[in-house]
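Hey forum,

I'm writing up a methods section and want to include a predicted complex as supplementary material. The small molecule is zinc ion. I've pasted the protein sequence and the SMILES. Can someone with a working setup run it? I'll credit the forum in the acknowledgements.
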Amino acid sequence: MGLSTAERVFLFVRCPNCETKSVDKPLAWLIGKDEMICPNCRALINLESGDNGLRIQKLARTCAEIDQSISELDESRL
Ligand SMILES: [Zn+2]
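Reply by user p_vandermeer:
Happy to help. Structure tokens for the complex are below, copy them as they are.
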């Protein structure tokens, strides 16, 4: 069993404090978190709501759809 799409996909997280220096994180890691500390400026970044929360939720849904499509393809080849 390989990695899920969410484990392979990295999302650019925007820090409200230092937007230009924000950071890439694996989507699977982000899905399990409410917030994270910005590695650049130590500000608390909210991952549940706002712009980051919306992007994480949308991408999580898309990744789940990709995994579903791939598993359907695999089943149809059995
Ligand atoms: Zn920052």
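Some notes you might quote in the supplement: The beta strands are 10-13, 23-26, 35-37, 44-46. The mean pLDDT is 92.
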